[in-house]
Amino acid sequence: MGSPGPGLRASLSQRHAPEGVAVTTTPSRTRVAADRDRARGPDQARGRGRPRGPDRAQGPDRARARDRARGRDRAAPGGEGLRGRPAAGAARPRLPDSASADQLALEARAELRSLPNDLAEVVARYLAAAGLDEDPDQGYAYARAAKRLAARVGVVREACGIAAYRTGRWAEALAELRAARRMTGRQDYLPVMADCERALGRLDRALALIREADDARLDRATQIELRIIESGIRRDQGLADAAVLALRVPELSSGRLRPWSARLLYAYGDALLAAGREDEARQAFARAAAADAEGETDAAERLDELDGIEVEDLAEHLAGVQAPGGSGVQAPGGSGVQAPGGSGVQAPGGSGVQAPGRGDRGGGSR
């Protein structure tokens, strides 16, 4: 990757943030009210409510190949055609009974007041469903349905941008978040937008977006998210030392843990490792693992790798075990053994429905 205060986040990322850290998807006002009230996780919204999305701490670098393999232009559920365009005569996806307008943050619902009451209710439910669904593609279908009903509302375009980001549709996410930024004037979309530019290989444009940021209008979580993405860009440019310097902030030496401490420490460890400073990287990953109570990053796994410890995936092991008669091990009901599902994108600071995070990044960053 991303999710802080204002936007719909991420998480980020995200997919291109340092490995293991997705960009917290833009905090969003479309984030569910319940999520907003929870303690922020590393991706700020990305993990918060478990509704989590795809990016769980695989990080953009590790997840990038997977995201690109999916393809930005593939058909999506809910009647979407190529490049996310609605297919002719496509029906809107059926809303789950659990999706309620009350699940949106008050700020997001206020933006929908420009719509007739019955339409506002339906759009709000689609936005809530988009933020809560653990399947990024289904969440994308819900967001697109909301857009077909209310394309001129900023929070709807924000939701579409985050949903596109979660599914690896970088160009589409960028276009939607640009539209949301024009409509709302918000700056907290910048981390996810910069991460999309990075994913598209346009590093100069990504840096230009970061330079546009007015720190006076951003909360600290969004400022840190921008630093994480900048560090990933510097690594992409082969500037390992500059990647480390981008993350040198006072909070690195502070003993106080913040919602984004694990993400910052993880990105710092990644940058140190790329710079050949393995001992310092190990310390940073250890601190990230200790700060990551929600398991938003794979800091503990990275630490094991540095220590030469190999952890076998139990699901993969069991999949290879054959039961009598030559059949594989099956869970009750005939289904194969499966690991628990993924997490969502989060974006930089704010409330709203979470994508939860390129990161890189939402990540996060790479």
Shape: globular
* CATH-level-2 architecture: Alpha Horseshoe
- Which sequence of SSEs, written as H and E, runs from N to C? EEEHHHHHHHHHHHHHHHE
Please state roughly what percent of the residues sit in beta strands, choosing from under 5%, 5-15%, 15-25%, 25-35%, 35-45% or over 45%. Answer: under 5%
CATH class: Mainly Alpha
Report the C-alpha radius of gyration, rounded.
19 Å
- Poorly predicted sequence stretches spanning 5 or more consecutive residues: 1-28, 30-89, 326-366
Mean pLDDT: 73
Q: How many distinct folded domains?
A: 1
Helical amount: 40-55%
Q: How far is it from the N-terminal to the C-terminal residue, by CA?
A: 8 Å
Main sheet strand line-up: 1-4
* CATH superfamily annotation: Tetratricopeptide repeat domain
CATH topology: Serine Threonine Protein Phosphatase 5, Tetratricopeptide repeat
Number of helices: 15
Total strands: 4
* Biggest sheet architecture: 2 strands, parallel
- Counting helices, strands and paired strands, the structural category is mainly alpha
Describe how the helices and strands are arranged.
Elements: E1 4-5, E2 8-9, E3 26-28, H1 33-37, H2 59-70, H3 106-111, H4 117-132, H5 136-149, H6 154-166, H7 170-184, H8 190-199, H9 203-212, H10 220-236, H11 240-246, H12 261-274, H13 278-291, H14 299-306, H15 314-319, E4 349-350
Parallel strand pairs: 1-4
Antiparallel strand pairs: 2-3
Can you tell me about this structure?
With 366 residues, the chain is mainly α. The chain has one domain (4-307, 343-350): Alpha Horseshoe (Serine Threonine Protein Phosphatase 5, Tetratricopeptide repeat). It has helices at 33-37, 59-70, 106-111, 117-132, 136-149, 154-166, 170-184, 190-199, 203-212, 220-236, 240-246, 261-274, 278-291, 299-306, 314-319; strands at residues 4-5, 8-9, 26-28, 349-350. The protein has a two-stranded parallel ribbon. α10 (220-236) runs antiparallel to α11 and α11 packs antiparallel against α12 (261-274). The longest helix is centred in the middle third of the chain and has 17 residues, at 220-236. The chain starts with a strand and ends in a 16-residue tail after the last strand. The relative contact order is 0.29.
